[in-house]
């Protein structure tokens, strides 16, 4: 078996009653680096096993580049969490192997309960998920029964089971606009930055859970200003889980798929990118010859917990992927009743997206840039 080291990871855990948040620890298993020859052999083994087991690999943009390439080479997909789930649901394979973090495996299972869903490491989690425990979230909802509960995809099945709507970063704004137009007051969880961004754009009455993504929370507005001075022609691409001071400097604010589309289509050769740097692999493929620079996570105000790469996404490696395919271990299970409840809020979003054709239409800041989205799947 592979040697792995354990990395302690800090994340913000809200204490809603006190109106503050505290930092707690989690951990990630970091796979050992492999030689080129080892990687080549593992890739061949995985390709063979995917065929033998009639399985399909579904990977997120933030995982290791080798896994992204393997997914594409073997007829799987590389995308964001929603498209991963949709792809898995619609693909005829009986076994889905989800290279990502736990909530992605759970969402795939909720949408495809009849399929076997495997993950390279079931302990790969997310600071947004960790920072929103189901029991505390239920108490928060109970305290505000007049509000429509909207949760981000980055939550556990149990939190989704309590929600009226699930949203992703590309469609959250449109759904909140829709609810606001109906006079609904909203309880939003868990990402405070995305919630605040949507609140400002829509003017909706939103009560925000105070969670954050430990990757995006580390981008620094002051240091980004300095970087922009050094690269005056660069366009700034920002995921809305980033802090307000970073979002305010963006040329494009969007989900992962939208940012890749922008990198490909915008008339610029240099980009500063404020999202997990795993996305740069796909951006370089989509826009060869263009230059991509990580937005700064360092500087005087830095505590850099992540250095722009999610420690939990990094738990997905070639070795554990091969082992899981071979052994059938690490199956994702969702309590059937919880899954049935959680399905409703996901299905509501998918239905809304289908009615709005939101899967091919940019939201928010990108509405003027329809051409950016030609050929780009849902975000
Ligand atoms: S990058 Fe952030 S939002 Fe995505 S899985 Fe990691 S901690 Fe969660």
From TrEMBL:
Protein name: Quinolinate synthase
Residues given in the record as [4Fe-4S] cluster binding sites: 126, 213, 310
Catalytic activity: iminosuccinate + dihydroxyacetone phosphate = quinolinate + phosphate + 2 H2O + H(+)
Domain of life of the source: Bacteria
UniProt keywords, alphabetically: 4Fe-4S, Coiled coil, Cytoplasm, Iron, Iron-sulfur, Metal-binding, Pyridine nucleotide biosynthesis, Transferase
Coiled-coil stretches: 32-59
GO molecular function, one term: metal ion binding
Enzyme class name: transferase
Cofactor(s), by name: [4Fe-4S] cluster
Organism listed in the record: Noviherbaspirillum cavernae
């Amino acid at each position: 078996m592979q040697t792995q080291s354990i990395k302690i990871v800090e994340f913000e855990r809200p204490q809603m009653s006190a109106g503050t948040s505290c930092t707690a620890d989690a951990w990630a298993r970091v796979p050992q680096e492999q030689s080129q020859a080892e990687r080549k052999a593992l890739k061949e083994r995985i390709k063979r096993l995917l065929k033998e087991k009639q399985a399909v690999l579904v990977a997120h943009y933030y995982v290791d580049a080798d896994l992204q390439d393997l997914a594409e080479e073997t007829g799987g997909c590389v995308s964001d969490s929603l498209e991963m789930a949709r792809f898995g649901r619609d693909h005829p394979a009986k076994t889905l192997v989800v290279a990502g973090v736990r909530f992605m495996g759970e969402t795939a299972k909720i949408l495809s309960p009849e399929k076997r869903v495997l993950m390279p490491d079931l302990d790969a989690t997310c600071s947004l998920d960790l920072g929103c425990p189901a029991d505390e979230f239920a108490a928060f909802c109970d305290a505000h029964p007049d509000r429509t509960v909207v949760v981000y995809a980055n939550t556990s099945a149990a939190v989704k089971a309590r929600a009226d709507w699930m949203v992703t970063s590309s469609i959250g704004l449109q759904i909140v606009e829709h609810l606001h137009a109906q006079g609904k007051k909203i309880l939003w969880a868990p990402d405070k930055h995305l919630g605040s961004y949507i609140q400002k754009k829509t003017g909706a009455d939103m009560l925000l859970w105070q969670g954050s993504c430990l990757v995006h929370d580390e981008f620094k507005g002051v240091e980004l200003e300095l970087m922009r001075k050094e690269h005056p022609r660069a366009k700034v691409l920002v995921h809305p889980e980033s802090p307000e001071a970073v979002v305010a400097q963006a040329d494009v604010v969007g989900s992962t798929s939208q940012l890749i589309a922008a990198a490909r289509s915008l008339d610029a050769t240099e980009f500063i990118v404020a999202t997990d740097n795993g996305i740069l692999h796909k951006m370089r493929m989509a826009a060869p010859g263009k230059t991509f620079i990580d937005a700064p996570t360092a500087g005087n105000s830095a505590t850099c917990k992540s250095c722009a790469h999610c420690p939990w996404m990094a738990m997905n490696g070639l070795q554990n992927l091969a082992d899981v395919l071979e052994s059938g271990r690490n199956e994702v299970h969702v309590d059937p009743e919880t899954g049935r409840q959680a399905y409703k809020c996901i299905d509501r979003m998918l239905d809304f997206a289908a009615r709005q054709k939101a899967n091919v239409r940019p939201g928010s800041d990108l509405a003027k840039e329809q051409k950016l989205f030609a050929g780009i799947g849902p975000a």
